Amino acid sequence: MKPSYLEIGNWQLAFAAGLIVINLLLSGWLRLGLTRSLSIASIRMAVQLLLVGLVLDYIFALDRPLPVVVIGLVMTGFAGVAAVNRTRRRFAGIYLNSVLCVFAASYVVTGAALLGILNVEPWYRAQYAVPLLGMVLGNLINGVSLALGHFMDGAMRDRNLIESDLALGATRWEAAHPLIVSSLRTGMIPTINSMMVMGIVSLPGMMTGQMLAGAAPASAVRYQIVIMFMIVAATTLGTFGVVLLAFRVVFSRQHQLCADRLRLP
User: Does residue 2 fall inside a structural domain?
Assistant: First the structure.
């Protein structure tokens, strides 16, 4: 049976890769210093996606829960580490905090979508579970990274103001509350901005991919709406969790700002 979408062959893929040459030439001409990083990123992205394609073909064929759970845990672990790697400062246990928050937020939201919204049977169907989790994680990383980085940088930047509030009798929560609020806003802004222009300025990848595969536009739109609500919910939970855990480390129970616990890598 002929597929309802257009197949992309090796030569077509190679031609698409040639488009990167434009970026490389521009980077070299303007001396942007991005030639090496762009080349590595392009090769790494292509290799990773091709390997993932092979792995998913195998997992789709197995149709068992254990491989789906394992690949989900691996994805979550890498996402939690990647979120921390984008921040300027570190503290003891930051990687564990990030992984736990990313895991909790992504699994709660993805589980709710699989069991309560899409009613996937069985719940571990890799065709749905892995792509949904991947899309949630891809956006969750940005929110967690931005919120966590803003909180730690803000604690150092506003150190004198925060310590003044604490010295005047404010609790650690009262002194840190403005910073916590601004950190959560920073983590949520990219997702909110993308939602504001979605459908008018941009057509999301999920919806576009479904339409290219032959799905009806109305059906693709419904899936995209579900995905965006999942992303917003996961980003909210993940950013709140990681900022709250960072708050408990940076501010002691004695209502002191422990700036010495923050260090540059």
Answer: no
Segments forming the whole domain that contains residue 123: 64-261
CB atoms under 10 Å from CB of 159, counted, come to 13
Q: Is the full-model pTM beyond 0.90?
A: no
Burial of 168 (0-12, 13-18, 19+ CB in 10 A): exposed
Q: Do 26 and 92 share a domain, yes or no?
A: no
Give me the pLDDT at residue 249, please. Answer: 93
Is residue 92 within 8 A of residue 249, CB to CB? The reply is yes
- Reported as a single tens digit per residue, the pLDDT across 14-41 is 888 788 888 888 888 888 788 888 888 8
State phi, psi for 42 to the nearest 5 degrees: -65, -45
CA distance 162 to 170: 9
Which spans in the chain are helix H? 10-17, 20-30, 35-62, 65-85, 94-112, 126-157, 159-167, 172-197, 205-212, 217-250
The answer to whether the bond into 122 is cis (omega within 30° of 0) is: yes
